Amino acid sequence: MDIYEALYTTRMMRRLRPDPIPLDTQARILDAAVRAPNGGNTQRWHFVAVDDRELIRAFAQLFRQARAIEYEKFSAGAGPMVATAPGADAGAHAETMRRMQGSGNYLADHFEEIPLLLFVFAIDDLGGANIYPAIWSALLAARAEGVGGVMTMVLRNFADRVNEMLGVPVDEGWKMSAMLALGYPRGKWGVAANRRPVHEVSSRNRWDGPFGVEVPQPLWPPRDAAATVLPAAG
């Protein structure tokens, strides 16, 4: 798969089929993940793959409870999902959240069917600088294998319970960074169309300096560069 196809079409997939993911496919996904850059090559990460159906059913109940907590925060005007990006349209943000809640409802309602959960742990991660490149590499590798997934952190609302269920040696400093729900998607891959264009979120040399070109449409699939990269207005 062309790297740009993977970069442009890897998105969060919450509607997943129950078909199992072969172990060799899982191995390729994680082998790509551990090649990710990390500070000092310390590799302070650990991945727990969960495919035990009883465990997944237990995590399903916990996930629904954790998700309810996040939406209670959202309804009260708190939490990370409330604020729009500066300059972003509030109505568009509300519509995005509505769609996300709909697909999230599907994930929550069908959680027991997810074939693979991947819990990601790290030690002293400096805000995620070491672990998130590995997570993104895992998602890109999954895309190359035809496997979709979604990263969620809501189970950190019950971190102690997760640690207990998975036997995490917390005394060594391990903390959960995220959980990935992985499976073959029911939907189609596609370029995310609801992104603000490059020139609206980028500048050059100073915060308020124009980036220099405008990119009104995604640059993949390849098109005539002259038609997609324009001189900056003004």
From TrEMBL:
<dbReference type="Pfam" id="PF00881">
    <property type="entry name" value="Nitroreductase"/>
</dbReference>
<keyword id="KW-0288">FMN</keyword>
<dbReference type="InterPro" id="IPR050627">
    <property type="entry name" value="Nitroreductase/BluB"/>
</dbReference>
<dbReference type="InterPro" id="IPR000415">
    <property type="entry name" value="Nitroreductase-like"/>
</dbReference>
<dbReference type="InterPro" id="IPR029479">
    <property type="entry name" value="Nitroreductase"/>
</dbReference>
<keyword id="KW-0560">Oxidoreductase</keyword>
<feature type="domain" description="Nitroreductase">
    <location>
        <begin position="10"/>
        <end position="184"/>
    </location>
</feature>
<keyword id="KW-0285">Flavoprotein</keyword>
<protein>
    <submittedName>
        <fullName>Nitroreductase</fullName>
    </submittedName>
</protein>
<dbReference type="GO" id="GO:0016491">
    <property type="term" value="F:oxidoreductase activity"/>
</dbReference>
